[in-house]
Amino acid sequence: MSREREPLLEVDDLRTRFTTDEGVVRAVDGVSFSVERGETVCLVGESGSGKTVASESITRLIRTPPGEIEGTIRFEGRDLATLSKDELTEVRGRDIAHVFQNPQGALNPVYTVGWQLIEAVRLHDDVSKQAARERALELLDRVGIPDATSRFDDYPHEFSGGMKQRVVIAMALASNPKLLIADEPTTALDVTIQAQILRLLVELQEEFEMSILLITHDLGVVAEVADRVVVLYAGKVMETAGVYDLFDRPSHPYTRALLGCLPGRGGRMRSIGGTLPDPTDPPPGCRFAARCPHAVDACTEGEQPPGYAVNESDVAHTVSCVHFGPGGDPDVVLGEQGNEPSGAGEAGTETGTEGDD
Ligand SMILES: Nc1ncnc2c1ncn2[C@@H]1O[C@H](COP(=O)(O)OP(=O)(O)OP(=O)(O)O)[C@@H](O)[C@H]1O
Ligand code: NI
Q1: At what angle are helices 161-173 and 191-208 packed, to 10 degrees?
Q2: Residue 271: pLDDT band with limits 50, 70, 90
Q3: Which of 60, 215, 217, 223 could form a disulfide with 51 if both were Cys (CB 3.0 to 4.6 A apart)?
Q4: Superkingdom of the source (predicted)?
Q5: Is the pLDDT reported for residue 309 higher than 60?
Q6: Nearest protein Cα to ligand 1, atom 13
Q7: Contacts of 159 (CB under 8 A, 6+ apart)
Q8: pTM, 2 dp
Q9: How confident is the model at residue 350 (pLDDT cuts 50, 70, 90)?
Q10: In this structure, are residues 195 and 165 in contact, taking their beta carbons and an 8 Å threshold?
Q11: 52 CA to middle of ligand 1, Å?
Q12: For ligand 1, what atom is nearest to the CA of residue 49?
């Protein structure tokens, strides 16, 4: 296989567990997905479904112990699991950049924004201080900091939340990363600012020819930026699809429930009825069965079903549901029309399943 043809990132059967006093938390339990070059993939799912743990397992930001990571993570064909600590630090600083929800945590309050950017540039590029300063200014300007020259010597606290997140994005871009992993990068910001930052990410992706792995629980964000979507639930992949197919023909009852509580398909996701299963003792069969309006006996037996192709002509759209497997009838889920999301039984009920990290 030629290098250009293989995905930039290939996650295969990722399992991340935490040993706790309450037992072993199976946060990510056999997750596979890939990110192609120049593609934006969204990891979506309710709070606690394993999005952050999955994304932080890629570059091993997870502390081990208490964590333990199994599975293969190939980046440009190299298995990241086999890299030494130093090699991994290099990949993290150069090829794969992370942007988190809270920009505060990524900036040092003691140094000016300009100084921190210069450091970020020089970490990757052995250039003169003057050249690094010019590049830092360029980056600030590119991410939309107005009058970057005069803001250069300001401290992080002198920037608004949205501007701070732009600075963090500039720092992430300093290394010209091939993959940007952004974990709820706009969740802490005002709605109007959110949209601007998302637009910025989309623009930068094209300009820098990056791939983006975007973590969000907001289907409005997914619709806006994703090329492809991976729906996670309780540490398992429930559905994978191109963004158009996901909204046009949502197939897993969980995906349909998520869409069902999206007012007018564009607002924020609310919680659906019921709660996630206990991650230390997940039930047999499909993890979503207890909340699923279409569950049958087969749903509570054996393993989570594999990802079945939704239809023969579209193998890239897969759904982990018995109704799509051999002998199953997708119409049980899709109904006669085939594309009207049914929503879960008690869709829209506030159940307090949303929480903070
Ligand atoms: N260090 C840890 N020790 C024990 N359990 C953990 C640890 N980190 C995460 N978990 C558990 O792993 C599961 C997945 O958490 P994760 O943070 O990945 O969810 P998420 O999908 O990112 O949710 P959110 O939308 O709230 O950010 C949760 O049950 C969480 O409690
Ligand atoms: Ni998270």
Answers
A1: 10
A2: low
A3: 215
A4: Archaea
A5: yes
A6: 27
A7: 113, 151, 167
A8: 0.91
A9: very low
A10: no
A11: 7
A12: 21
Strand, helix or coil at 74?
strand
Round the average pLDDT of the chain to a whole number and report it. 89
Q: How far is the CA of 186 from the centre of ligand 2 (A)?
A: 12
Q: For residue 300, is pLDDT > 60?
A: yes
- 3 state SS of 30: strand
Is ligand 1 within 6 A of the CB of residue 75? no
357 lines ligand 1 (CB under 6 A): yes
> Beta-carbon neighbour count of residue 141 at 10 Å?
15
**Tokens at residue 154, please?**
């300001």
Which ipTM was obtained for this model? Answer: 0.99
**Ligand 1 atom closest to Cα of residue 55:** 18
Q: Please tell me if the CB atom of residue 48 comes closer than 6 angstroms to any atom of ligand 1.
A: yes
Give, in order, the Cα–Cα distances in Å from 89 to each of 59, 74, 100, 136, 329: 8, 16, 18, 22, 48
pLDDT digits (tens, 9 = 90+) for 185-231: 998 888 889 989 999 999 999 999 999 999 998 888 999 999 999 99
Q: Ligand 2 centroid to 282 CA: how many Å?
A: 19
Q: What pLDDT, on a 0 to 100 scale, did the predictor assign at position 6?
A: 87
